[in-house]
Structure formats: C-alpha cells, structure tokens
Design a protein that fits this description.
8-stranded parallel beta sheet; alpha/beta; binds zinc ion; about 260 residues
C-alpha cells in the first residue's frame, strides 16, 4: 500500500509560533514541510493566541497556493460579524476557526449561533475544536452541545476538530442525524496510543462510510510528515480500501474546500 501515490489534504494544522520572526517565516517553513511530505493543500487555522496580527498571517498565507487560511474570531467580539466578512473579503480567509476552550466561551451562547450562521451565509465552513482535554472536561465538554449548535445552523458546514477524542462514538451517532456535522481526526488518532479510542475512531470512519471525515496533522502539535505517515499506515493496517482512504485523506476535504 505504501507505494501508492496519493493526493493528500491536511485539514487541520497551525503555523508554528516557536519559529522566530514574522508569520512569513512560519508559513515558508510549513510550506516546505508540506511539499516534502507530498501534501497538496492544508487548512491553516489562525489563532488569536499566536503573536502575529491577522493581517500578517493573511499576507504570509497568500504567498503559498497550498495554504488555506481559516480566521479565528471571538464570537463575543461586538464586531465579530463584521470581522468575519472582512476576513473573507479583504484577507482571503476561506473559513472560520473557533476554539471554545482557548477562547473561553460557551458554545450554546446566541452570539456563537449568530456568527456560525453568518459563516454559512458567506459560504465559509467552520472549524471548531472538539478535543476533550482535562480543562475542557472540567468546563463541561458535551457532544450534545456541538450537535445543538450544528442543528441551529443547518446551512453551515461545521468540522469538529479531533472528532471529540474519546467521545468520538457519541459524535458519530449525532452526525448520523445531523448532516452538517463533519470531523477531522487530527491529534486524536495518534494521541491515544493504547486503549480503545484509536479503534473507535476507525470504527466511526467506517460507520460513516468514510464520508465527512478528514485527515489532519494538527502540526506543530504533531510533525506534519510523521503524522501523515503514521495515519496512512494505521488506515492501511486496518484494511481500509483505497477508495475509503482517498475519501479521508483527500476527497472529503477537497469537496468541503472547493479545492
Ligand atoms: Zn489544532
């Protein structure tokens, strides 16, 4: 299987802010790593917590055809709707990134629904972090809250990052009722080295017919080339068909991103 030349999209990663200098340096470094790994396109999730202004990130990404930016905006910002429109029209971002844990907001708040609906109206997909680490579990991580948000915004495609970690089966069962729920398997597939979670994630992919599920590396949390190699071999060893792997590693993301 390893000899097959695949088209790959990485649906979830970030610029590495441990790289000194401007966003341009980090974007150049990332683009080089993607080229080396044979990755055709990648969704770069801007984070408000990183040190570069959003305009600088936009400019750095625009220099590389393969880098597709999603803008991180706080839903409680009084100018959130305006900022989203500007991110699309003026800064060339192609999606919205929300991180309820890092940005400390409750996803059931009306302002979140309003911003996520606006994204759908603008034709922008939304990437929402859904990894249940200890902090988020203490904040009340709940798959039903994600489902309710997706239900309230039926015209917005929402990718739940990391597939809910060990809550992946709940997420998958909810997605079977809610067609605008999508997932990436970044970090989670490789994080849970032992135990049943990895098998559960693979089961969820199979159960969804390998639709609406996408590969991601979560670089720099995991090194992009290594994450790709390990993920491909896990899928091969689990006897996913060539078509199923094409869907997870390329087609599903390509469709969502109009690539
Ligand atoms: Zn991430």
């Amino acid at each position: 299987m390893s000899g097959i030349k695949r088209r790959i999209i990485d649906a979830h990663l970030h610029l590495d802010d441990s790289i000194p200098g401007g966003a341009e340096n980090a974007a150049n470094d990332l683009d080089g790593q993607l080229a080396k790994a044979g990755i055709e396109a990648a969704v770069v999730l801007h984070l408000e917590t990183q040190r570069w202004p959003i305009e600088e990130v936009s400019k750095a990404l625009e220099a590389h055809k393969r880098l597709i930016g999603f803008a991180n905006i706080h839903p409680f910002d009084p100018d959130a709707l305006l900022k989203l429109r500007q991110a699309k029209d003026d800064l060339n971002f192609q999606g919205l990134k929300l991180h309820p844990r890092l940005q400390s907001f409750d996803i059931s708040d009306d302002r979140v629904v309003e911003l996520v609906r606006e994204a759908g109206d603008l034709g922008l997909p939304v990437m929402m972090d859904a990894f249940p680490d200890g902090d988020w579990l203490m904040m009340g991580f709940d798959p039903l809250a994600f489902a309710n948000l997706a239900k309230a915004c039926p015209d917005t495609k929402i990718i739940f990052g990391h597939m809910g970690g060990h809550h992946c089966i709940d997420m998958m069962m909810l997605a079977k009722r809610i067609p605008n729920m999508h997932f990436d398997i970044s970090f989670s597939l490789l994080y849970y080295l032992m135990g049943s979670t990895r098998e559960n994630i693979l089961y969820c992919c199979k159960s969804m017919g390998c639709q609406r599920v996408m590969f991601g590396s979560d670089h720099p949390g995991m090194i992009v080339g290594e994450a790709l190699e390990k993920s491909l071999s896990i899928f091969s060893e689990a006897d996913f068909s060539n078509t199923e792997m094409e869907n997870v590693f390329f087609n599903n993301a390509a469709e969502l991103l109009n690539w």
